[in-house]
Amino acid sequence: MNKRPSFATAALALLLALSHGVAVALTLPKESAVPGGVVIIELAADSAGERPRAHYNKKPLLVVNKEGRWLAVVGIPLTATVGEHKIEQQHTSGKMITHRFKVKDKAYKTQRLTVTNKRKVNPYAEDMARIIAEKKRTQQTLAHWDPRNVDELVFAAPVEGRQSSSFGLRRIFNGQPRKPHSGMDIAAPTGTPVFTPIAGTVSNTGNYFFNGNSVFIDHGQGLVTIYLHLDSIQVKEGDVLKQGDLIGTVGATGRVTGPHLHWGISLNDARVDPALFLTE
Fold first, then answer.
1. Which pTM value belongs to this model?
2. Which of 103, 133, 164 marks a domain boundary?
3. Looking at the structure, do residues 164 and 250 belong to the same domain, yes or no?
């Protein structure tokens, strides 16, 4: 597979550090306790020394160890209400430990877009069976749980380009309100290569009615990255990818106004702001 040069350089630096016995500290995403944001909550240590287990809204949470502390990295859904929320930790002693946090309000802006293919805004009756089947398949992909360790939580953007649309925008297509924008749009010419920012396994690929050519990569513990509207797909389901491997190329498939990559991040089955996971 083709590789992005900067990723190769970073990987070499990591290997050199490990070979010299230098500990590479886990970098955490930025916190933002708002709908579509991320909070990090310290868990009680497990007496058996194993990774603790915790849930939020009945969904298992990604748990990492940083400098001897067990931390739950919690994705807050865009539909979350303002106020107190809680996660439940299942301790080996048998008791449940409750950890509470507060979600603040955030007023996302409104974006009005004109889509020339009106069928992508108001699908025909014969399109609905396909749309429903694709929605079910996507839900299964994003709800999948793989217990593997997650060693990296901050990374470079998967494509070089201009951020053309931010996460959380209240979108209006051809004058009709639709669901908030669940990812980050990066504008780039058709054919621009798209790379995976961290290692993972391709869990879903296909051509979707609204999303066009799509790739989903499972990174473990409910962390899934999403790549939509691709021109070409260069991977297949089950492929194990290293950081910097080629996924596909930017395109304008599905419901779009021009060529771009929709890049999404799903954490404990909640779509969260990719900007929180980007390197400075």
1. 0.87
2. 103
3. yes
